[in-house]
Amino acid sequence: MSRLGRATWDFQSTPVYVEGYGTVAGQLEGKGPLGADFDLVLENDRIDDDTWEHSEQRMFAKAVQLAMTTANVTAEQIDVLVGADLNAQLTAFYLGTRAFARPSLGVYSACASICESLAVAGLLVHTGHVDRAVAGTSSHTSTAERQFRYPTEYGAQKPPTAQRTVTGSGAVVLGTSVHPIQVTHATVGTVVDYGIASPWEMGAAMAPAACDTILQHLSDTGRSVKDYDLIATGDLGHVGLKLLKELLAEKGVPQPELRTFVDCGAMIYDPNQPEVFSGGSGGACCSIVTFSHLFRKLLNGECRRILVSATGALLSTVSVQQKDSIPSVSHAIAFERKDVQ
Amino acid sequence: MATWTTFVWAFLVGGGICAIGQVLMDSTKLTPGHIMSLLVVAGAVLGGLDLYDPLVKFAGAGASVPITSFGNSLVQGAIAEAQRDGWIGVLTGIFEVTSAGISSAIVFAFLAAALAKPKG
Amino acid sequence: MAMASEADKRRYRELVKREQPGRRIVRNTIRAFVVGGLICEIGQCVQSMFIRFAHFKPTEAGNPTVAVMIFLSVVCTALGVYDRFAQWAGAGSAVPVTGFANTMSSAAMEHRSEGWVSGVGSNMFKVAGPVIVYGVVSAFFVAMIRYLVTHL
Q: Is A176 at the interface with chain B, CB within 8 A?
C-alpha cells in the first residue's frame, strides 16, 4: 500500500535508494563541529569576488555535480532536478542548475524545502515516472540577510533567539539501483500557525509544525519514537528544539524518548562561534547536515533508521510588515539501512 | 569654550541617550529604525521648546553627536529661516544647518560603495 | 489537526515566553551607555580640536565634527568591522550619528551588485529613510506650530 494514513507516502514496494550525495559548506560552517564531514568547504563565502547570489548559484551547481559524481552518473542520466532555495523566484536553483539542462521542478517550503524536494523526487522514482532524480537545496547567509533583513554590513543588534542562515548546498541522487541508504517514507506536512509574529523567533514559529508532522508520521506508519535511532529537525535551533520537546512531552512522548531528537541547526555551529545565536537556519541547514553527518551515521552503522523533519517558516519580506503572523510547515523523510540487521 | 566638565557631561549625556535607545530596543517590539525615528522626533520637539540648544552648550558632543541633534538642527534651521522670511521659511530653512551631516553621509557612503565590497 | 484555536495560541505563547532566553536588558544597557558615551567623547575631542587648531567658533564646530564622525563610521563599515562592534554595543553604536552613517554606507555597499543607479542610488536610503522623513516632518510641524504661536 503506497499511501499510509492521512499524509504519508510509503516507497518500500518499489524501493528508492540514495545513489549519490554531495555537500558544499561556507566558511563558518566549515569551521564548525561538523566541518570535517562536508565534501567541500569554501575559503570565502563570496566565490571569485562575484555577487552573493552568483556565489550561491555556483554552490548549488557544485553540490549537484558532487552528488552525480558519487553516484557515478552524468547529467544526461538524470531525469529530473527537484530543488529549492530561499531567494525570490528560486534563482539559486534555476540559474544555478540551468547548465545541466535537465527537466527541472523548483519547489518551495522555506527551510523545509529539502524534505519537500526529497518527497517529490522520491515519489517520481518510486512510481517509475523517472529512473533517476536529483533533489537539493541551497542557502547563503548574505543572500538571506539582504533579502529578508538588512544590508550585511548594517549594525543591527540581534537578539539571542535569532538564527544564522547557513551558507551551503546539499544534493542527492535518488534512483532504483540498490545502495545502502533507502528513502522509505515521506510525510507531507500541514501548515500550522500558532501566532508567532517576530522574524527573530523562527524557532518558536516552526516548532509546532515539526511536532505536528512528526506525530502525523508516527501515527500514519504505526511507528513510535523508539523505532527510530534519531529524529532530526532541520533548523529549529537550540530554542526551537527545546520548545519541540516541550510540545512532544505535552502530547505524551515519554522523557527518555525525547533524547532521540536532535536539530541540524543546533549541531552545525559551536555556540562559541561568532554571531550564531540560537543556531543555524536556511534551506541548506538540513540538507548539508543530513547528507554528510547523518548519512555518515547510517553508513558506519551507528544508526539504522532516522527520520528527518525539516521545518520552514512561511513569511515574505512584506508579510511581517503587514502584521501577518508566521505560519510554518514541516515535511518528514525516513531513511533506513535495510541491508544490515 | 569647552571646559573639562563638558568632557564629563559629553560622556554621561551621550551614554544616557544611547541607554534610553537600548532600553526601548530590548523591552519593546520597536525596530532600530523605529527608535532612531523616535529619537529624531524627540530632538525636534525639544529643539522647538528651546531645550536642546542649552543641552548642547552644556554637554557638547554628548548632545550633538546622537541622532537626536539631527532633529534639533532641522528645527533650528526652520525656525531661523522663518524669523527671516516669514512662514515660508519653515520649509526653506529645514536643511540649512544639517547639510554637513547629510552631504558627508551621502558622499562617504558612495565612496564606500565604490571602494569596498561587503564581507557578509 | 484543525487550525490552532486562540486558547492554543495563548498557551503556546506562554510556553515560548518561559523557554526563550530573554534579552539581557541590564547588560545591554550598560554596554550601550559606555560605548555611546565613548563615541560622544571622541566627538567632543574632535570638536575641541577643530575649535583650537582650525579656529572654528564653538557654535560652528559641530558641523565638521559630525562630518568626521560620519567618515570614521563609514571607514569601519567598509572594513567590515562595524556590524561586529554593533552586535556588542547595540544602541551605543546605533544612536550616535555613526549609526546613521552606517545605515547609508552598508546599504550603498550592499546594493552595488545591482548597479550604480538601480542599486547604490535607489537603495542608499533604504534603512536611513525613516530618520530623514520623520525628522523633516516633525521639524516642519514643530517649527510651524512655534511660528504660529509666537506670531498670534
A: no
The model carries a pTM of 0.94
Q: CB–CB of C47 and B1 under 8 A?
A: no
B-C contacts at Cβ under 8 angstroms: 272
Q: What are chain A's domains?
A: 3-175 (3.40.47.40), 181-337 (3.40.47.40)
Beta-carbon separation of A52 and B25 below 8 A: no
Q: What is the full per-residue pLDDT of chain C (152 aa) written as tens digits? A: 568 889 999 999 999 999 989 889 999 999 999 999 999 999 999 999 998 898 888 777 888 999 999 999 999 999 999 999 999 999 999 999 999 999 999 999 999 999 999 999 999 999 999 999 999 999 999 999 999 998 87
Q: CA of C10, closest CA in chain A: separation in Å?
A: 8
- B84 part of a folded domain: yes
| Rg over CA atoms, chain A | 18
Where would I find the H helices in C61-128?
62-78, 82-89, 91-94, 97-110, 122-123
- Per the CB < 8 Å rule, is C74 touching B118? no
Taking the C-alpha atoms of residue A292 and residue C11, their distance in angstroms, rounded to an integer, is 37
How many domains does chain B divide into?
1
Cell 534555476, residue?
A: A94
Please give the C-alpha separations between residue A37 and each of A45, A289, A337, B119, in angstroms, as whole numbers: 18, 8, 20, 25
Residues of B with Cβ-Cβ distance to A151 under 8 angstroms: 118
- Angstroms from C118 CA to nearest CA on chain B: 13
C145 falls within a domain: yes
Q: Do C147 and B13 make contact, defined as CB atoms within 8 angstroms? A: no
> Does residue B62 lie within any of the structural domains?
yes
Residue B85 domain boundaries:
4-115
Does residue C3 sit within a domain? no
So what's the ipTM on this one? 0.92
**Neighbour-count burial of A181, counting CB atoms closer than 10 A to its CB (0-12 exposed, 13-18 middle, 19+ buried):** buried
C-alpha cell recorded at residue B24: 526601548
> Which domain covers residue C73, as residue numbers?
25-150
Residue contact C33–B75, C-beta within 8 A: no
Is B120 domain-assigned? Answer: no
Q: Please check whether residue B40 lies inside any domain of the structure.
A: yes
Which amino acid appears at position A211 of this protein?
C
- How many domains are contained in chain C? 1
